[in-house]
Structures are given as C-alpha cells and as structure tokens.
Design goal:
Elements (H helix, E strand, L loop, with lengths): L19 E7 L4 H11 L7 E7 L4 E7 L2 H4 L3 H5 L5 E7 L14 E5 L2 E11 L2 H10 L9 H11 L5 H9 L4 E9 L3 E5 L8 E5 L2 E5 L3 H4 L4 E5 L5 E5 L2 E5 L9 E2 L1 H6 L5 E2 L2 E2 H15 L6 E4 L5 H11 L7 E3 L12 H11 E3 L1 H4 L3 E6 L6 H12 L4 E6 L21 H4 L2 H8 L3 E4 L2 H7 L12 E2 L1 H4 L7 H4 L3 H11 L1
The protein binds adenosine monophosphate (AMP).
The site of adenosine monophosphate (AMP) has 19 residues, from helix 13.
C-alpha cells in the first residue's frame, strides 16, 4: 500500500514507502499468535508498523502499532485482546509520527452487511483518481493510504453479495495488489491480474493460510499448498475453497525484483527458490563480467547469495570481507539522507584481516542512490584492498517502482543520472559492471527478455510499466504528479 498525501519526517519524502507483508489464517485457535509468527518471518517486507485483526465468531478486534512485530505483538496482554480462530495481519514500512498510526493496516470497516478487514501489499496506481471520484460522491477518507480506496469502492458497490461487491471493487483498481481480507464468514485472498506481488496459500493442520512468502509458512511448520494465481480471487470459508477469475486470462508479470532483492532467500515464489535464483544470478554475472581478482566479497546480506554464485562460477575464493551488524535495519529505508549515511557506517564494517592487500570483487544486489556502494568501497580501500571491482547482480536501477517497492524518485536513482563509466568514478572502483537484462532473465530460467512479450515486471530496470499509471498520466495529472513526486 501507498500513502497518497502525507509528508516525510523532514519534508523530503522521496520514496514510495510501501514495502509490505501480509498474512492470514482461517480456523486455528489463537490465530493472532500464529499471525504474529507469520509476520515476524515477513519482517523484511516492512519494519515500521504492524497490525492484526482477529475475529472470534461474534466480534472483530483490532491492534495496530508502530514498530517491529516483536515490539508489541509478542506481549500476552496484546494477544489477549485479539481473540478468535481467524485473523489477518500486515507489516509495513511507513513514515513515523502523528500520521503513522492511521495508515497502519489491516484496515477495518463496518459495512451494511458486517465487518471487513483488509491487508494489502502493492500499490494501486489509480487510487488517487478513484479517491477524487469517491470524494465527489460524498466519501470521507480517514487515512492517506491507497488501500482505503478499496474499502470505499466495496461500500459503494451496488452488487448484492459481498464477494460480488469485492470483485466489483478490485476490478476497478489498477496497479499491483496482493490482498488478504477477513469478513465474519470468510477469508479472501486476491492478486492483481498480472500477479505482480506474491501471495501463497498454505495449510496448518487443516487451517488455511495466506501469506506473502513461503518463509512465513516454515516458521510455524505449515505446508505450502500453491501460489494464488495472478488475477485469482480465492474465497476461504468453513465449506472450503472457491476461486474466481474476474479478469479472465492475462499473461503474468511477476516482479523480478522480488528475486533480486526483496523476498527472503529461503522463500519459494512462483516455482523458484529465491536463494538458488540469486546464486544463478551471480553465476550469470560472472559469465558476463569476469574479473582478474583474488577474492569475492559479498555486501551482506543482500549480496551474499549472488556473490556465492559469482565465486563458484569464477573459481575464486569467497570470503566475508565485510561484516554486518544485524541490529540495524535496512539502511535504505531510513528517512533522512544524513541518517542514511550514518546507517551504512553502523551496519557494515570491513574485515581488514581478510581483504588487506587483496584484489577484491565486491558483489551487491543493486545500486539505488549509490550511497551504500560509495561507503562500502571506501571502507574496503581503507582496510587495504589492492583493487576494488564492483559487480552488481541486477541491471542498473533506472526507473522508479510504482508497484509496491520502496524506490526513490527517478532523479535520485544513480543510474538515471549517470553512465556506468561515470558511476564507476562516483563510487571510486577500479571496474564496475551490472548484470544485463537478458542475463537476469536467463538466471530465472528464461531464454532472455522477449521485448514484445516480457515475462516479468522489470519496470525498475527497463521503464516498461505493465499497467496503466492513471494517477500520473490521467486528468488529475498536475496534482497527482506533485504528490507522486513527493512519494516516489
Ligand atoms: P543505495 O545506497 O541507495 O544505492 O542502496 C543500495 C542498497 O540498498 C543495496 O545494497 C540494496 O541491497 C539495497 N536496496 C535496494 N533496493 C532496496 C529497496 N527497495 N529497499 C531497501 N533496500 C534496497
């Protein structure tokens, strides 16, 4: 989900801030405790706030808090306020401060036919346009999140049955959405017609689970059943499962960046193991851009699987030349530029003993603003490396994501401002190479990028957006663009 109108801590909001994880379970005692564990496994998808809504057969209970899952939801007093055998949850990145809590999910609304809670991962690209239409019809919004638009569309639908209202609402949406909803009688999972963000179905002793990634099943010993299909609306009731495909068949465009960086390496998404895929990405990178060097060093943790693949392919020793402090969050999602700089120093330290005098190949998954690379390279040089070569396990990130990955606006992306040669000078390395887009496709076992018919959403690398971007391109352009400029 995305914030439509709020500002950042320092007024410099420049990112989408909508990495999210969703999880729900239907039919298990103490459901909220299970959701807590599932969300903990999905913590990498958003660390700023979390929420759980449970249902005990007669009433819904809602808890939403800023902070990590473990900060609040592990407390017995909080879990005691979330009774019932059905619950859904959400973990999100958000701005902190006054506006934070009202945008924390799941959202809950009392409709004419009963209560409904919803968790959303992704970004609705016509939410602002729809919001304006709804406001003209009298709707009052209580948050600045694109997800609330969906609740209003459901409320305004003239269809009879709730599931028809839900389908009526989501078929008016554009963009990326993996949704988990909970009503008095059902849990609903839905993916946008291109299946841009992941959503999987699991089973724990007969209780169905919906989750962003399979790692959230492993933590509770649940079984993977299948991925929710792109464009599928799956309804779970006491009577079992029922699927709807309101958009018909469309060619999927799963987010390739989930494989590059976003998903946890121990997850399996769309039939691929993320760790194995990252190793294959590293192998492909070594084939495309070999280096005469002494050792391969990952930028931990996100560069590690690709660095292992690179080292294996190149026949070079792999060593931990950079040590990461695990008690610092992802540096990228700190709110201000100065803190972001500080975060990099807090998070990584060069392992001098390992790299002194060596020709080092540094492998990281991506370069966004270039802040991390600049700092790390300097650190490795200060530790006495003889040469520093940088290999990036993805193509240059040259365009913003509008589908739910936290990305700065295009002008702040290093690759949109500089050639690779200039980037090499900027981060001060002896050589710099990125994986080619065809190489990335080969690493996920495709023959290459078919430009007439790409198999993935790779917009952050190619600028080829697979859905309409109505809020940017539509009639509301001027106002929308100024908001989007703020938010990514
Ligand atoms: P930067 O310092 O802006 O170039 O950020 C690059 C680093 O951020 C890389 O080491 C990536 O592992 C990480 N990264 C890339 N994309 C994201 C994202 N959307 N959210 C958080 N971290 C990211």
């Amino acid at each position: 989900m995305t914030e439509l109108t709020s500002t950042d801590l320092d007024g410099e909001a420049d990112a989408f801030r909508d990495e999210c994880g969703v999880f729900g379970i239907f039919g298990k005692a103490d459901a909220a405790a299970v959701v807590t564990l599932g969300l903990h496994a999905l913590q990498h998808r958003g660390q700023e706030a979390a929420g759980i809504v449970s249902y005990d057969g007669s009433q819904f209970s809602v808890e939403r808090h800023v902070g990590l899952i473990g900060d609040t939801f592990t407390k017995p007093s909080v879990l005691a306020r979330l009774p019932g055998s059905r619950a859904i949850g959400h973990t999100r990145y958000s701005t902190t401060g006054g506006e934070g809590l009202r945008n924390v999910q799941p959202f809950f609304a009392e409709f004419a036919g009963g209560g409904f809670a919803i968790s959303h991962n992704g970004n609705i690209t016509n939410a602002l346009t729809k919001q304006r239409e709804l406001q003209k019809r009298g709707a009052i919004f209580s948050s600045t999140s694109d997800t609330e638009t969906l609740l209003h569309l459901i409320a305004m639908s003239e269809r009879e049955l709730f599931i028809d209202k839900f389908i009526d609402a989501i078929t008016q949406l554009e963009g990326a959405f993996s949704l988990v909803g909970l009503s008095g009688k059902k849990m609903v999972g839905a993916r946008d017609p291109l299946g841009i963000r992941p959503l999987i179905l699991g089973d724990l002793d007969g209780a169905y689970i919906l989750a962003s990634e399979t790692c959230a099943l492993d933590i509770i010993g649940a079984h993977y059943v299948r991925d929710i299909k792109p464009g599928e609306v799956l309804v779970i009731t006491n009577d079992g499962l029922r699927s709807y495909f309101p958009w018909g068949e469309l060619k999927p465009r799963f987010c390739i960046f989930e494989y590059v960086y976003f998903a946890r390496p121990d997850s399996n998404l769309e039939g691929r193991n993320v760790y194995e895929t990252r190793k294959m990405i590293g192998e492909q990178l070594a084939k495309e851009s070999p280096v005469d060097a002494d050792m391969v060093v990952p930028v931990p943790d996100s560069g590690t699987p690709a660095a292992i693949g690179f080292a294996q392919q190149a026949g070079l020793p792999f060593d931990l030349g950079i040590i990461r402090n695990h008690y610092v969050g992802r540096t990228f999602i700190q709110p201000t530029a100065s803190i972001r700089h500080m975060g990099v120093k807090l998070k990584h330290n060069a392992n001098q003993k390992a790299i002194e005098g060596k020709r080092v190949v540094l492998v990281d998954d991506s370069i966004v603003r270039g802040t991390t690379s600049q700092k790390i390279v300097q650190m490795v040089r200060d530790a006495g490396a003889a040469e520093v070569h940088m290999r990036i396990a993805s193509p240059p990130t040259a365009a913003s994501c509008f589908y739910g990955v936290d990305t700065p606006e295009k002008s702040k992306l290093l690759a949109s401002r500089m050639s690779i040669e200039d980037m090499k000078d900027y981060i001060k390395v002896d050589s710099l190479a990125f994986l080619s887009i065809d190489g990335l496709y080969r690493a996920v076992n495709e023959p290459g990028r078919d430009s007439a018919c790409p198999q993935f959403c790779d917009a952050c690398f190619t600028g080829d957006y697979p859905t309409a971007l109505t809020d940017r391109d539509g009639t509301e352009t001027t106002r929308t663009l100024s908001l989007l400029a703020k938010h990514g």
